[in-house]
Amino acid sequence: MTETTGYSRSGLVLVKNPHLDLMEEDVLYHLDLGTKTHNLPAMFGDIKFVCVGGSPNRMRAFAQFMQRELGLAGAGEDVADICAGSDRYAMYRAGPVLSISHGMGIPSISIMLHELIKLLHHAKCRDVTIIRMGTSGGLGIKAGSVVITDTAVDSSFRPRFEQVVLDDVVVRSTELDKDLAEELLACSRDIPDFPTLIGHTMCTYDFYEGQGRLDGALCSFSSEKKLEYLRRAYEAGVRNIEMESTAFAALCGLCGLKAAVVCVALLDRLEGDQIRASHEVLWEYQQRPQRLIAAFIRKRLGLTRTD
Ligand code: R2B
Ligand code: URA
């Protein structure tokens, strides 16, 4: 089976599942939303930006930050969790921006994305840009640097995502939107407080052995072997390591969504494995992708600093 990526001329999300049209109702179980129980076009039809990230608290803080950045009524007040009936994911909105948590790892983000993409389809959203914001381990870059992903790669540095479908392995492309990455990089030039760069992001199935760490409960390789692997990753163009980007790029690409990944590096993995920065420092690092994405959304909406 060949699977094609590409954007639809109408700007609508492309779900590629003939069974969906035959269903009387679509229950988005993990989001606690559904086509019969909710008026999805009324609730979400005007969404233009979807921002996803691992932690529910971070995504609530991002929605509150966007309320202030967009000068929306109610800024400074609490925001309601649209998925409050499910404790799997949290979802908030700030004007045309939807902010959703995806948990850690490929299985968790995949489930959320299937339901989110169907939600955007049922709601008839048009011209949606989706951005994953997150944390990562840097490779040969200073802690606190922000990496905008050009291509997500697997543990062998290949731009591909393998999805098991029945008893087959389907290989999917992990290219991201190059123009969107450049647009985000251009926005970073107005935020001189931290370095931002474009590079490959390696996506793994595990934080410890899968990312070549020596400090897990299990480790069967030497420090030399670890460094040799991480240096090869650097030579292949990898600048950071995280746990969702290949699945995110593959699913969004196939469904016609313009997608980007923006992650801050919490440490340089060539220098160590443990994350030792203080809570204050880590909190400030996590603001960095948010600040960049807020600047991008403001620019897209034609807002200037005095708005
Ligand atoms: C980055 O941070 C998490 C692991 O600590 C994981 O979700 C990721 O991609
Ligand atoms: N997230 C990861 O997946 N790896 C790191 O090293 C840091 C954050």
From TrEMBL:
It catalyses: uridine + phosphate = alpha-D-ribose 1-phosphate + uracil. Its EC number is 2.4.2.3. It holds the Pfam family PNP_UDP_1. InterPro entries: Nucleoside_phosphorylase_CS, Nucleoside_phosphorylase_d, Nucleoside_phosphorylase_sf, Uridine_phosphorylase_euk. Pathway: Pyrimidine metabolism; UMP biosynthesis via salvage pathway; uracil from uridine (phosphorylase route): step 1/1. Phosphate binds at residues 88, 132-135. The keyword Glycosyltransferase applies. Residues 48-298 form the Nucleoside phosphorylase domain. One of its GO terms (molecular function) is identical protein binding. The keyword Transferase applies. One of its GO terms (biological process) is UMP salvage. It comes from the Eukaryota. GO terms for cellular component: cytosol; type III intermediate filament. PROSITE patterns: PNP_UDP_1 (PS01232). Keywords: Glycosyltransferase, Transferase. Substrate binds at residues 211, 213. Catalyzes the reversible phosphorylytic cleavage of uridine to uracil and ribose-1-phosphate which can then be utilized as carbon and energy sources or in the rescue of pyrimidine bases for nucleotide synthesis. Shows broad substrate specificity and can also accept deoxyuridine and other analogous compounds. Belongs to the PNP/UDP phosphorylase family. This is Uridine phosphorylase. It comes from Serinus canaria. The lineage of its organism: Eukaryota, Metazoa, Chordata, Craniata, Vertebrata. The gene is UPP2.
